[in-house]
Design a protein that fits this description.
The chain has one helix spanning about 30-35; strands at about 15, 45-55, 65-75, 80-90, 95-110, 110-130, 155-170, 175-180, 185-190, 195-200, 205-210, 210-215, 220-230, 235-245, 245-255, 260-270, 275-285, 295-305. By secondary structure, the chain is mostly beta strands. Helices cover about 0% and strands about 55% of the residues. The chain is built from 1 helix and 18 strands. The termini are far apart.
């Protein structure tokens, strides 16, 4: 009966709904561009990352998310550029987003850079009415009859523009970023029955990562991720230990506020080659949801080209007019 009855709240009349809408990820510290568009090019070479996440395994209708992004430095424009595609399924609802970005990178010193990024794209929300149940509906056999004109029988979908901005500071040991998503707070409108509007609520993300070099072989990387829409705030505290810049493992703790906790997260991974990094995270739920599901799983794969594309900006040249 957990056929996502709560989603039918969307369809109670002419309403505008606001809620936390960003998908959840546990390996955020390994995927800087997804968290902040100003990170594009900060890996120095073309970098491609794919993530698959299945949340609350065993709970019917639980979220499932796929994400891929590609970014690279763009030397001729003194910055970086990136592409992001994300598909997030939550019960009867599917959110698909695609966006492009550009960021300007200012070099502050030999070991520090400050980046300012802007991105834009579109989001499609789709609602599959065949996965919803109404209290007065008739669902005998293969027939779907909600007995409610507000709930679609098939799939309803709509598009809206999205925009994001970020700032990112990178030094030899410290990385700090701040980003804002859904800047325009666009409205997505379902036209089935009485129209229902869903607002893409603006979200703010702050990240910080510090690298402590314990020895030539070992380093420790504490990090923090804060997400907020100024109604609800979620914080992840994480720490990774890495051997020879290759094998790493660690843990995270996620909470919503001083009274509410979400999960304890175990992380591990390695560089399978100079160009490929593989990582895995398991979320052990600490909330009352632990009685209904067996945890969340997340896999990340990163590919870094490790060589320049097209080279850097050439030095200024004085040409001899005789030879043009």
């Amino acid at each position: 009966m957990l056929k996502i009855l709560s989603i039918s709240i969307f369809l109670l009349g002419i309403v505008t709904l606001k809620a936390q809408q960003l998908p959840q990820y546990s390996l955020y510290m390994l995927d800087g561009y997804h968290t902040n568009v100003a990170y594009a090019g900060m890996d120095n070479y073309l970098s491609a990352t794919g993530v698959f996440r299945k949340q609350w395994l065993g709970l019917e209708g639980s979220p499932m998310t796929q994400h891929i992004n590609v970014h690279l430095p763009w030397y001729y424009l003194s910055g970086g550029a990136g592409l992001s595609i994300e598909n997030d399924i939550q019960g009867a609802e599917r959110n698909t987003a695609i966006s492009l970005s550009y960021n300007y990178i200012a070099r502050l010193s030999e070991s520090s850079r400050l980046s300012f990024g802007l991105g834009g794209g579109i989001m499609q929300k789709a609602l599959d009415g065949s996965k919803l149940f109404a209290p007065e509906g008739n669902y005998e056999g293969v027939t779907i009859n909600h007995n409610d004109d507000l709930i679609p029988i098939g799939i309803e979908s709509s598009l809206a523009p999205t925009a994001t901005a970020g700032i990112y500071l990178q030094t030899r040991s410290l990385q700090i970023g701040f980003a804002a998503n859904h800047l325009t707070e666009s409205l997505i409108r379902y036209e089935s029955g009485i129209a229902t509007e869903i607002q893409l609520k603006r979200h703010y993300l702050a990240t910080a990562i510090y690298v402590f070099n314990i020895s030539d072989e070992w380093n420790v990387q504490p990090s923090i991720l804060l997400k907020s829409d100024f109604v609800e705030t979620q914080v992840d505290f994480s720490i990774l230990a890495q051997l020879n810049n290759n094998i790493f493992a660690g843990a995270s703790f996620r909470g919503y506020n001083g009274n509410t906790i979400d999960a304890l997260i175990f992380l591990a991974g390695m560089n399978t080659s100079p160009k490929i990094r593989l990582a895995y995270a398991y979320d052990l739920s600490l909330s009352r949801l632990s009685n209904y599901q067996t945890g969340s799983h997340e896999i990340l794969l990163n590919y870094n080209l490790n060589k320049e594309i097209g080279g850097k900006i050439p030095a200024k040249t004085i040409y001899n007019p005789r030879y043009f």
